[in-house]
Amino acid sequence: MRFCTIILAAAMLVGGAGCGTPSFLITPVQNTQKLREMQVGGGKGSDKIALIEIEGMLINARTGGFMQPTENKVSLFKEQLERAAADEHVKAVVLRVNSPGGTVTSSDTMYQLLMRFKERTKKPVIASLQEVCASGGYYVSCASDQIMANPTTVVGSIGVIFNTFDASRGMDKIGIRAEAIKSGPLKDMGSPFKAMAPEERAVMQGMVDEYYARFKSVVAAHRTVPQAEVGHATDGRVYSGEQAMKIGLVDQLGLLEDAISLARKLGKAPGARPVMYRRPYGYSGSVYASTDVPQPRANVTQLQIPGADSFMPMGFYYLWQP
What we know:
Layout lengths: L1 H16 L18 E4 L8 E11 L3 E2 L7 E2 H14 L3 E14 H18 L3 E10 L1 H6 L4 E4 L4 E3 L4 E2 L5 H6 L24 H25 L4 H7 L4 E3 H6 L5 E2 L2 H11 L6 E6 L37 E4 L3
Parallel strand pairs: 2-5, 2-12, 5-6, 6-7, 6-8, 7-11
Antiparallel strand pairs: 1-12, 3-4, 5-13, 8-10, 9-13
């Protein structure tokens, strides 16, 4: 039935486009929602190094679209960790990190999942930082036993951001006024349809400060940053990988291949084969997989982040947002 539906949809697309449109060749395959193990590098024997990706916007929502894979980043991360935990031949894990961060809760959830994985399995974890490892991406990476960056990796942006805007004056000019029927004076705090009152700002700032303190406590628990550099390291700025190593945000410089070699050493598995877990077709997910991409509440603006996979709902973020 599913195969017939795909053929019908393809036929409609081709038929509606007119002459000269390329045709679709669709081959029926067995649809599986399970993660499949794929070897992605050289090695021998039964020992393995599991490569797990932390990429793009970290948000607890399914992302993707028509004819694109849809995944929930938090759910997929949990599934991959569980697969690595259940396999006695996986001797270590390498996180391939390329993320500007994401929501506070998604970042913290992934961090907690990784900490529990390490406590339960005792398997070493190495974070290999690629183009960007900022804010929430760095927050998750702090749970690793070792952090390795490229010299040119963008690292840091330790902090919290809550973005909103004030559209009230523009609405006044075109004769539009928003009214909220609310149960309490702060129920609509942060609304873009009115200016933020001082008491609203104080409440929001208090939450930002709380999440910021949590971020700094995570960094302090896992990294050794010279006291003279702590203020700079946690003021939201970013560093190159080389600069980050000098102040203790990363342990050493190297490529992904070097991180795999380190994982073999720490896992006492010199011949271990690097593997990844992929879902070739369909979507399943773990307990975190039920959330769909949030829809905007009003057609005022839609903020798109280059490299991000989904609409950014209003909220608190561990996010590098240049």
